[in-house]
């Protein structure tokens, strides 16, 4: 049974990452579209395609890191609330059951720092992947067409 729950959690996590990649990629496509004129001016002044790609990729990774950081902080806060509630239940009763007789499932919830660092690295990689297609599209913008764009 616990193997099935673990598989379900992995599937939910992978689905969340994929939806996050799609969301960041869409945001970056909109950013590139809105900044087409600026990118055209940069290229007309001599910016290399690699500098345009790095600009878009750094923005995508920054968005991903900020959102990931707040997500981890929220997750840790939820774990602390669960731990506080469990401490209150245990303090009021001699055994580890809640007020309706259910066993408390999460006695000491915590987050492993190794998993948090691994998740952050995975978020950075996913952010870079999400920004790659919009960044390459921005690098292919021709300066003259971008300056005409409104």
Structure description:
It is built from five helices and no strands. The chain is mainly alpha-helical. The chain has one domain. The N and C termini lie far apart (58 Å). The relative contact order is 0.19. The mean pLDDT is 84.
Give the number of helices.
Answer: 5
Number of strands: 0
**Strand and helix order:** HHHHH
Strand-pairing-aware structural class: mainly alpha
Mean pLDDT: 84
Helix residue percentage: over 70%
Q: Name the overall outline.
A: elongated
Given as residue ranges, the uncertain stretches (5+ residues, pLDDT < 50) are: none
Oligomer: single chain
Blueprint of the fold:
Elements: H1 2-34, H2 36-44, H3 49-92, H4 113-139, H5 143-148
Helix pairs in contact: 1-3, 1-4, 3-4
In short:
The chain is mainly alpha-helical and 150 residues long.
Sum up the structure in keywords.
150 residues, mainly alpha, elongated
């Amino acid at each position: 049974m616990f193997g099935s729950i673990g598989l379900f959690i992995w599937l939910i996590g992978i689905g969340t990452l994929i939806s996050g990649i799609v969301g960041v990629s869409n945001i970056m496509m909109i950013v590139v579209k809105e900044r087409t004129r600026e990118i055209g001016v940069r290229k007309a002044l001599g910016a290399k395609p690699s500098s345009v790609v790095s600009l878009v990729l750094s923005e995508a990774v920054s968005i991903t890191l900020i959102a990931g950081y707040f997500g981890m902080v929220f997750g840790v806060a939820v774990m602390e609330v669960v731990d506080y509630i469990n401490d209150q239940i245990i303090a009021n009763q001699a055994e580890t059951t809640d007020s309706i007789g259910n066993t408390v499932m999460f006695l000491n919830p915590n987050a492993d720092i190794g998993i948090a660092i691994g998740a952050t690295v995975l978020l950075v990689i996913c952010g870079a992947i999400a920004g790659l297609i919009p960044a390459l599209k921005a690098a292919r913008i021709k300066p003259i067409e971008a300056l005409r764009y409104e």
